[in-house]
Amino acid sequence: VEVKIEVVIPEKERSKEELSPNGKASPLIYKVNGTARHYHLEEHPIASNPYHNPKDVVEASVCHVKDLENGQMREVDLGCGKALLIKESGEFHAMGHKCPHYGAPLVKGVLSKGRVRCPWHGACFNISTGDIEDFPGLDSLPRFQVKIEKEKVYIRASKQALQTQRRTKMMAKCISLSNYNLSSTNVLIIGAGAAGLVCAETLRQEGFSDRIVMCTMDRHLPYDRPKLSKSMDSHPEQITLRPKEFFRTYDIEVLTEMQVAAVDVKNKTAVFKDGFKMEYNKLLIATGSTPKALSCKGKEVENVFNIRTPEDANRVVKLATSKNVVIVGASFLGMEVAAYLADKAHSVSLVELEEVPFKKFFGERVGRAVMKMFESNRVKFYMQTEVSELREQEGKLKEVVLKSGKVLRADVCVVGVGAVPATGFLKQSGINIDSKGFIVVNKMMQTNIPGVFAAGDAVTFPLALRNNKKVNVPHWQMAHMHGRIAALNMLAHGTELSTVPYLWTAMFGKSIRYAGHGEGFDDVVIQGDLDDLKFVAFYTKSDEVVAVASMNYDPIVSKVAEVLAAGRSIRKRDVE
Q: Which residues form the Rieske domain (predicted)?
């Protein structure tokens, strides 16, 4: 059944804000409780039966009603695929059993107050709807029907959903794109990382059906950037977050290799480097960061890389195979690259100014345990020194000279010494930027300019977890959530950011998971065995746990994240 409804609002009730950028009133806006919303109702057909094809349906008895206690989860087999069965508050729920992000088994995750949190990377799913509520990842989980007959629990599910284990939320489309002026859009998103993509998808999920344009300096559609250092030989098409058809289907326009040179907030116009101008109604700035370069002598020689694109990562792997690699900076990127190349290169040397990797982030004891793991995998560390010169032979890198006087043979060098926010183009814009170059936003991702939002690595925002202290959290999960919050507030929902930061790093097939915000921690309480790399570390400030990290100790980090997300505090004595 296709239902078409046209809502006509009297002229006097339309505010200027609700006009399309080309000056024509959008027929898709109507008011709900005084809030402007865009809906394209054709996108929401009324379905009497969620399973259209009876041959695609399987129904199976999976357990007795007494087999599960409240608060328990079980992976159950329906013959042609598995589902996650959950019992909470006396009710049964069934949905996909694998996290759509990287396929983690959700039965090993954490069930708390109507949602399941992934044990690997912290994504959260509503057990009643299957909808994704915290990130990373883009898709939700399929939800299956549960019925109780004669004390037995039955699940009825689509075979296709059991096999795919993911569900893309229903989205609106843009109406009559042909009517639009090419140089104007309702929403302009600068940057096509996680924040930009989630913003565009959330707008469509919420029924917004006006024009959305994303622009990026990259030559690719949005891709899984963390894989650049964790899985370096991945090709762009293997790590793309959404295929080309997705952007076509939901009318999300992506302008690749397009750089914005300035933003004129008075005239609501973005000026591109090539002189092209685009008017907008709402703007999201999600430009991320720019890697810092080395400032030493010889920095322009060939085969010195910042890993910024899939091409950079692929080229490094090719050049490093059976050759000598020097990595400058024991950052997340530097350490992940070292781990990835350790069994491919002839030698891997890592140069770092600190005495221990990750000291400021994970603390000295965890840092030393990680360093030991790297050394046992043939990575050589040169600590408390830096690069003074890069020497070349026939234009290509040959040696890296350290300030300590040591000379390292090097065929390729990867630089991972941090990054700066990519906000230089905003200097004259009037948008509030702090002394370090970060865009300052509130809990709704709004800047000081009405209608201008910012998200991701380029912003500082109030973190609820740390009494609304302004922080910068340059991590993948947080960028997703920023994009979602920005989109909801473009639609005047008044939604505030309250997520718990969650991140992970992968090295030599092992992961360190981390939740919270440990900046300024004054003590670390460690349980487990650091030498055995099976531990949990609680980072405390005064008497309070502000962050947690673990290795081979799942799902402790997700458990702590759920406690902190509920607004409860954990005291130092609780973890000692």
A: 60-155
What are residue 421's DSSP bridge partners?
289
The verdict on 273 and 313 lying in the same domain is: no
| Same structural domain, 402 and 429 | no
Percentage, residues of the chain above pLDDT 90: 88
Q: Lowest-confidence range among 10-14, 218-222, 323-327, 405-409?
A: 10-14
**What is the token pair recorded at 495?**
């939604």
Q: Which residues pair with 263 in a beta bridge?
A: 270
- Please tell me whether residues 310 and 247 are part of one structural domain: no
Give the pLDDT confidence of 492-526 residue by residue, as tens digits. Answer: 999 999 999 999 999 999 999 999 999 999 999 99
Confidence band (pLDDT; 50, 70, 90) for 181?
A: confident
Residue 439, classed as helix, strand or coil, is strand
Residue 345 lies in a domain: yes
Task: Please tell me the total count of domains within the chain.
Answer: 4
- State phi, psi for 83 to the nearest 5 degrees: -135, 160
Do both 384 and 437 map to the same domain? no
**With bands split at pLDDT 50, 70 and 90, how would you rate the model's confidence at 338?**
very high
| Residue owning tokens 């489309």 | 173
Which residue stretches of 436-514 are H helix?
Answer: 476-490
Q: Which residues of 241-275 are buried (b: 16+ CB within 10 A; e: fewer)?
A: bbeeebbeebbbbbeeebebeebebeebbbbbeee
Write down the pTM of the prediction. Answer: 0.90
What percent of the residues of the chain are helix, what percent strand, and what percent coil, each to the nearest 5? 20, 35, 45
